[in-house]
């Protein structure tokens, strides 16, 4: 912020120049007496000289003239406006070389591209803006609210500037590089057109009708070139050696043509971890680039830095598989949460608490559009319920937890779906959404039907965190790491991880053995072993399982979802019914998925 000095009383005062304001701003200031500087090295106050110099200057330089002086002792409007005339260059450049910390090798010049003028006094006024035409430097426009009028440069010079906008003037070398780039790009486009036309003429013609339609084919090919059709995209994927082709991003081209220093030609932002383009299709891969010659590409990288050089717009097949798996899983997850999310505990007895911050990330993830490139994938990551527990006692939940602010409640099906797709944890199951509450053991048998491996069904694999996040949608890699039990429904004990800990008896459905079955089991000297069933997510507690030699007991059918159960009226339940004493009403209303997420459910009563 620059001060323009005191207003002179002489009517012939011609004001002060902008360069004088900058000199005053950068003038040395001597700190003596009470304003001495405390030296960290000497550990005492000393006399010193302070001044401001610029180490580097930006592309756009904004200069704010300090025209208003406030007096806090008399309120906000107690002050004055300095309306002294400040002259500034409009048609000539502003030289900033003298204000640099080190003398530059080349002139540091700026040209005026716009200014803001304040008309009025300290108590009120009006702002007017003047802007230069982008391509015609002699054309200026005045912006007064909704009115836009062309003005002469002389009117801009007579304006009372409040904020000035200057753009750095490119050097002669930079201007020559722009012209060289444009010339090379036009030449490459012409060579590409000639190559595609020659390839079209070389196609076999079997009849007179084919020859007569040659002109029509040429017109179609030229239209295809203008619209970057399949022929051009295929050429970009596998460039012909005789074209000697490389590619530069359109983003960097805009920087080159509009900035004095475009910066390094960094192509790493377009490359995936495998060193290729990470887009989902050839159309998207060709959109951000211009074709140029390899010779010019090497010169630009040598001059401005950056790299690596891109010589083909071939997409990475691994990233394409990853993008496809990510989009398909996200859509399947959205549909399953919509199907199983309820306003009560569903078929279970408790609420599964989920960290509220994680739920916010999940909402943004599941509501986002299908991704088209590798860098836009934004999975919420594993569930982070550790924040719900005390730091000093990780087994105890915090005392000040708040519903919606710290946690959200979901039913068992949604919880196990989240665990399967994203992992994390730990499970926090309570009988109510509000404190005080009682802890409930995880109900590992309440899995969504889709997550129970079936013969010939790969849905479990394709929605798993391991397949999408760890294997990047690579089925062969997944099979090599995790086997094929989720692909073929293999539930053999050899494919399970044994667990020697005691099973959770609360999670085992009650089974009543007949007298004959009990006798047969005793004769076989059967023992109950602990094992993790195939249909349970990782991290869930084991439950008891009968050995293969024991008598077979008819399997207990899983509980049907609440929306498909026998209808019961909530009024038929006694008033004292709680989630710990009775199953929630089976006619629970499925949540409206206006926001495709687990809504904040209400506690059952």
From TrEMBL:
Residues 516-530, 552-564, 574-586 have a biased composition (Low complexity). It holds the Pfam family DUSP. SUPFAM superfamilies: Cysteine proteinases, DUSP-like. The keyword Hydrolase applies. GO terms for molecular function: cysteine-type deubiquitinase activity. Residues 486-605 are annotated as: Disordered. It comes from the Eukaryota. Residues 1-169 form the USP domain. Keywords: Hydrolase. This is Ubiquitinyl hydrolase 1.
């Amino acid at each position: 912020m620059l001060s323009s000095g005191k207003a002179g009383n002489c009517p012939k005062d011609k004001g002060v120049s902008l360069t004088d304001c900058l000199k005053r701003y950068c003038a040395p200031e001597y700190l003596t007496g009470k304003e001495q500087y405390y030296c960290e090295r000497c550990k005492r106050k000393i006399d010193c000289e302070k001044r401001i110099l610029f180490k580097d200057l930006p592309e756009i330089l904004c200069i704010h003239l300090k025209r208003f002086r406030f007096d806090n002792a008399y309120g906000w409007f107690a002050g004055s406006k300095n309306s002294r005339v400040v002259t500034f260059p409009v048609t000539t450049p502003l030289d900033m070389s003298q204000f640099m910390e080190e003398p530059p090798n080349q002139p540091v010049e700026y040209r005026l591209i716009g200014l803001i003028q304040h008309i009025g006094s300290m108590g009120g006024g009006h702002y007017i803006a003047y802007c230069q035409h982008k391509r015609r430097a002699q054309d200026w426009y005045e912006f007064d609210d909704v009115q836009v009028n062309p003005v002469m440069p002389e009117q801009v010079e007579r304006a009372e500037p409040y904020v000035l906008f200057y753009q750095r003037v490119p050097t002669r070398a930079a201007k020559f590089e722009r012209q060289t780039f444009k010339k090379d790009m036009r030449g490459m486009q012409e060579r590409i057109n000639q190559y595609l036309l020659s390839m079209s003429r070389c196609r076999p013609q079997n009849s007179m009708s084919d020859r007569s339609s040659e002109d029509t084919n040429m017109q179609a090919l030229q239209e295809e070139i203008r619209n970057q059709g399949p022929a051009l995209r295929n050429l970009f994927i596998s460039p012909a050696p005789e074209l000697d082709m490389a590619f530069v991003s359109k983003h960097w081209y805009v920087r080159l043509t509009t900035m004095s220093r475009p910066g390094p030609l960094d192509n790493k932002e377009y490359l995936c971890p495998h060193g290729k383009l990470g887009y989902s299709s050839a159309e998207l891969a060709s959109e951000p680039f211009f074709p140029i010659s390899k010779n010019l590409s090497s010169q630009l990288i040598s001059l401005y830095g950056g790299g690596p050089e891109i010589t083909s717009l071939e997409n990475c097949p691994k990233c394409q598989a990853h993008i496809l798996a990510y989009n398909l899983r996200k859509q399947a997850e959205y549909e399953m949460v919509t199907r199983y999310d309820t306003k009560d505990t569903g078929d279970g007895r408790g609420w599964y608490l989920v960290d509220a911050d994680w739920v916010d990330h999940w909402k943004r993830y599941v509501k986002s559009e299908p991704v088209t490139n590798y860098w836009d994938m934004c999975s919420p990551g594993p569930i982070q319920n550790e924040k719900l527990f005390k730091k000093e006692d990780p087994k105890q939940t915090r005392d000040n937890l708040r519903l919606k602010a710290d946690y959200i409640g979901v039913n068992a099906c949604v919880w196990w779906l989240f665990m399967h797709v994203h992992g994390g944890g730990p499970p926090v199951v309570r009988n109510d959404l509000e404190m005080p509450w009682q802890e409930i053991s995880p109900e590992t048998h309440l899995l969504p039907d889709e997550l129970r491996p079936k013969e010939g069904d790969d849905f479990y694999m394709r929605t798993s965190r391991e397949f999408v996040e760890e294997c990047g949608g690579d089925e062969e890699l997944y099979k090599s790491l995790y086997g094929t039990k989720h692909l073929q429904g293999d539930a053999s004990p050899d494919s399970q991880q044994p667990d020697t800990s005691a099973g959770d008896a609360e999670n085992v459905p009650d089974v009543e053995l007949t007298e004959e079955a009990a006798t047969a089991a005793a004769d076989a000297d059967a023992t109950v072993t602990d094992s993790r069933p195939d249909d349970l997510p990782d991290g869930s507690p084991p439950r008891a399982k009968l050995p293969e030699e024991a008598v077979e007991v008819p399997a207990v059918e899983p509980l049907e979802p609440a929306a498909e159960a026998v209808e019961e009226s909530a009024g038929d339940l006694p008033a004292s019914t709680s989630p710990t004493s009775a199953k929630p009403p089976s006619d629970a209303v499925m949540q409206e998925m206006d926001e495709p997420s687990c809504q904040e459910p209400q506690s059952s009563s």
